[in-house]
Design a protein that fits this description.
The protein is of the alpha/beta class and 283 residues long. It has helices at 18-26, 46-57, 69-72, 84-98, 138-147, 154-157, 166-184, 224-227, 259-262; strands spanning 7-10, 35-38, 62-65, 109-110, 117-121, 191-194, 230-235, 242-246, 249-253, 273-276. It is globular, with a radius of gyration of 18 Å.
Length: 283
């Protein structure tokens, strides 16, 4: 018999905004057995990230975190000057001190309501393959984006060290993660795949500025939801909270986003999105 509790998720907390920080301070589980999936972009400053994850880890039975692009930035006012893989390793160790599960840890099995299911936190980045129609390669796609006035801040704030480029780091992460999923997912159990960036292109089709899709994922993972038996794919990054189905698999964006984005919405900001049990998810 499954244990009590719900599996819930949120992302893109961006706690440098006072209004968002106040929302995080109010987040509470519905029961002592709830698990929380945090799908990246907690904040940019190492101190803010530690504050938020410490708070959440003290309230939920388990917190699972994946990095977003903002955690990987090296802001000029952050005392932690690490870049690229070294910054990610620093954040992984921070999470481990707090008891927070990361993409580098064994995959936990959710055994509460809607379980059992394997929770697979992923860190995959992007490789500029979500290109504008008609463009043949990364260089041409970036030129089209720049001509449209669309350039992600990552190009200035996120360094892929020691990799030559973000696409190289992405390819390395995809290869390592695919190997783990292939060998470590228990046979017969569904999975919940958690990544900051969408792992299929379809969620980006409604972007106001379609060129921004370049910084939103990789075509290399398009078959993963079906291949790895996903009951749900949880993501953020786009700041467009919604649910869609792709090849029969539910994809749930769980973003809070910036105050200017969530203020006009009729829903209560900071609502924890139910992932399991599936009956709690709107159809």
């Amino acid at each position: 018999m499954a244990k009590a509790g719900r599996l819930v998720a949120i992302s893109d907390l961006h706690v440098r905004y006072d209004e968002n920080r106040a929302i995080v301070e109010r987040l509470r589980p519905a029961s002592d057995d709830d698990w929380l999936l945090v799908a990246g972009d907690v904040g940019e400053l190492s101190g803010d990230i530690e504050w938020a994850l410490t708070l959440l880890a003290g309230r939920f039975a388990k917190v699972v975190w994946v990095p977003g692009n903002h955690e990987l930035w090296t802001p000029p006012d952050d005392p932690i000057r690490l870049t690229g893989e070294a910054r990610y390793a620093y954040l992984v160790e921070l999470c481990r001190r707090l008891g927070v599960v990361t993409p580098e840890d064994p995959y936990p099995v959710w055994e509460g309501e809607g379980g059992p299911a394997v929770i697979a936190p992923l860190f995959l980045l992007y490789d500029y393959t979500f290109r504008p129609a008609g463009t043949r390669d990364k260089a041409e796609a970036l030129a089209v984006a720049r001509a449209a006035g669309v350039v992600c801040t990552d190009e200035f704030m996120l360094r892929p060290d020691p990799h030559p480029g973000m696409d190289d780091w992405c390819r390395a992460r995809v290869a390592a993660t695919e190997a783990r999923l292939t060998t470590e997912l228990p046979d017969g159990l569904p999975s919940v795949l958690v990544n900051h960036w969408p792992i299929v292109r379809e969620p980006t089709r409604i972007l106001r500025y379609p060129e921004f899709a370049l910084w939103c994922g990789t075509e290399a993972t398009h078959d993963w939801p079906v291949r790895f038996r996903a009951a749900s794919v949880v993501y953020g990054h786009l700041h467009i909270p919604r649910e869609i189905r792709v090849d029969g698999v539910l994809h749930q964006e769980v973003s809070l986003g910036y105050p200017r984005e969530w203020r006009p919405r009729p829903t209560t900001p900071g609502r924890l999105v139910p992932i399991l049990p599936a009956a709690a998810v709107g159809r």
